[in-house]
Structures are given as C-alpha cells and as structure tokens.
Amino acid sequence: MYVLALVTQKGGSGKSTLSAGLAVAAMQRGERVALIEADAQGTISKWKERRAGSYPRVDCVADPAEIEPVISRLHAEGVWLAIIDTAATNNALATRAIASADLCLIPARPSPADIEAAIPTLIAIRRINRRFAFILNQTPTRGCRLSEAATSLNSLGVLALPFIGQRNDHQDALGAGLGVTEFAPEGKAAEEIVALWDWISERLIVESNDHGQAALKTAC
Fold it and tell me: Residue 78 pLDDT > 90, yes or no?
C-alpha cells in the first residue's frame, strides 16, 4: 500500500481539495483508496457526508499514535492508496503523517507568503528523510508571479506537474461531495488533476520498484 501525506503549515493552500480530487481520480483508475483525516477542521469528513457514494472511505484520527494502526488496518483490508489530509500546522500529528508517508505533497500558492510558510514543513520532511514534491496550487493562468514561484520551489526540491489552476470547479465539486473529475469531467480542472495523479502514481510505483531492487542487491 502507498501513503500520501498533504502537509504544510499554511492555511488555505488547498490540501483538503487536492486530497479529495486525487482520491477520486485514483479511484477512477481502478484503485482502492482511503482518506485519513488528520485535521480537526473536518473538511474531508464534511465532504464525505455530502457524498452519495460509499467510497472513498474516510478514517479520522486525532492522536499521532492512531495513524500507524489505521494505515495497518487499511493495508490489511486491501487498500492500495491512503491519502492523509493534515491540519495547517506543524504539530505532532502532521509530523507522524510525514513519517508514515511514501511521498509528502506540499501545496503552495504562487505567493512569497506560501513559499516561506512551506519552509518549516520542508525542514521537518528532510529531518525525517521522506520523499516530497511541491504542488503549485490555485495558480493564475498567466503572469510572472507563476514563473517566479516555480523557480523558487524548483530551487528547494521537486515540483510536481502540472500546476493546478485557480478554477471554480474545485470548490463547486467539494461542495457537492464530488471529486472534480466527477463534477466536470471534461473541464480543465479535471484534466489537471488527472495529469497530477498520473505524475504522482508514476513516482510512487517507479521509485518503490527502484528501492526494492536496491534492497535486493544489498541482500545479495
């Protein structure tokens, strides 16, 4: 099973919206997906209440010690992907989510405030030695601010592609209890989320295989 954690101490970066959108995009590719809500604000739980379908399931955790047992249970139940949505803080719960993740995703809007706020999260991720990627989120369609933000994030680490534009479909989908790929499947927002999921899944699978081969060579 693979675990993604969406983490940053900056509020309003779009962690919950991305979590829901990526979960549904992965489900539509035939994967068994669960969401783990580690945010007392409860955005994912409220989204699930508005959702007509049973999936993806949502497990809520309030204590750092609960994350690993929940992940173990999901793995035993045959879940292929767990996505952890964390609060806008670098608390112990977020730190445990980072430690449990195969890949940490750091959403940031193209503004100096968001990029600066991502630094403490990046330090925590590097301290625990976890893989990570930035996601430029809620971006304008054009302008020098976007290219400047991309340059800044590229200098700090890996930048996921594509950038996710600021589009009404994301918020409308969240309000309807849907993923954006269900709400407006032919829209630009859905196209970007599908492409982002493809980027993420490729790195999860390829890098996991690389690590497995490295471990096999070491054992030999």
Answer: yes
Query: Which DSSP string do the residues of the chain spell out, in sequence order?
Result: -EEEEE--S-TTS-HHHHHHHHHHHHHHTT--EEEEEE-TT-HHHHHHHH-SS--SEEEE--SHHHHHHHHHHHHHTT-SEEEEEE-SS--HHHHHHHHH-SEEEEEE-SSHHHHHHHHHHHHHHHHHT--EEEEEEEE-SS-HHHHHHHHHHHHHS-B-SS-EE--HHHHHHHHTT--HHHHSTTSHHHHHHHHHHHHHHHHHHHHHHHHHHHHHHHH-
In order of start, what are the domains of the chain with their CATH numbers? 2-219 (3.40.50.300)
| 80-115 pLDDT tens trace | 999 999 988 778 999 999 999 999 999 999 988 888
Q: Which amino acid is at 7?
A: V
Could you report the per-residue pLDDT of 45-74, keeping only the tens digit for each? 999 999 998 899 999 999 999 999 999 999
Quickly tell me which residue has 């700090």 as its tokens. Answer: 156
pLDDT in tens, 165-207: 999 999 999 999 999 999 999 999 999 999 999 999 999 987 6
pLDDT of residue 155: 85
